[in-house]
Amino acid sequence: MKFCPNCAAILTIKIPADDSRERHVCEACGSIHYQNPRNVVGSIPVYGDQVLLCRRAIEPRHGYWTLPAGFMELGESTSHGAARETLEEAGAVVRVGPLYSLLNVPHAEQVHMFYLATMAYPEFSAGEESLEVALFHEHEIPWGELAFPTVKQTLEWFFADRAAGVLSGEFHVRSRDVLPSERI
Amino acid sequence: MKFCPNCAAILTIKIPADDSRERHVCEACGSIHYQNPRNVVGSIPVYGDQVLLCRRAIEPRHGYWTLPAGFMELGESTSHGAARETLEEAGAVVRVGPLYSLLNVPHAEQVHMFYLATMAYPEFSAGEESLEVALFHEHEIPWGELAFPTVKQTLEWFFADRAAGVLSGEFHVRSRDVLPSERI
Ligand SMILES: [Zn+2]
Ligand SMILES: [Zn+2]
């Protein structure tokens, strides 16, 4: 960010009055341009004892498997975004349940949130951002070909919680921070 | 957003290839400038059976009471942001517990998240953005002078859950969308 989106003047990086952090400040029009983390919202689409995954047709991690998820858009809620991404990427209509995991990825300036979701029918199809979409039993999950640490962690928590029988009751959101060094 | 933050050219609003929504696109340098909701992170600071609130020294809602909360910054996690805001606005060091509420405010392009938090000592002080800070028993909460619907809803959930004895066990995140028409 070099130029003011409001007036095209060159921006200054400085700490505004009444602030404690450096911001992109426009001396010409007086505006301050804050930057904030973005939310990635997705679902864990469950059909019976299977989970729906998408193989990515786009970078990053082209060809790797992911839970359906994407950037939250203006004007929608986190759960609506999760349902929308599931429909767009996996062609699946889901009933969205409770928030299941919240993973902070500070080095990517992102927060990832996954909702439990159920599919009434095994109907799905690859959207434009997916090469293929498929249902997996736990023993079929392509653990070595998952796209992101947040997807791997969410699936690990999910299968452990399912085995422990806690998903049908109350539970805290599963949450942790992802480190820059984490690789699949 | 009128000018490209990268090259200062005038932006075009159009639907990029492989997208389904209008974006701010720069025809000069090819960059696409996405806009996404921002997270507001805060805490419910609990000392014994009291909750800590701040009276706002800034707009919007100058003079009204709020839970300590503010915009999540780049490079931090949601829980770190909640602890930071609690220290900055209320001068209180808290131990942050589980995520308690997640409220979508689509018309404000915001997601509000509040963490349960405990204070080891009744030590607090008004930060620059607060006129005063005080501990409240449930019957003392200034319900008619709260700053935001998300704060009111979170406090209502909190006291109901505390009365029901569920806060010490597992619980789903309390979550709903706030409507544009909602007023305190
Ligand atoms: Zn400007
Ligand atoms: Zn440009």
From TrEMBL, chains A, B:
Gene3D superfamilies: 2.20.70.10, Nucleoside Triphosphate Pyrophosphohydrolase (3.90.79.10). It comes from the Bacteria. Its cofactor is Mg(2+). The keyword Hydrolase applies. InterPro entries: NUDIX_hydrolase-like_dom_sf, NUDIX_hydrolase_CS, NUDIX_hydrolase_dom, Nudix_N. The keyword Hydrolase applies. One of its GO terms (molecular function) is hydrolase activity. This is ADP-ribose pyrophosphatase. Keywords: Hydrolase. Pfam families: NUDIX, Zn_ribbon_Nudix. Residues 36-159 form the Nudix hydrolase domain.
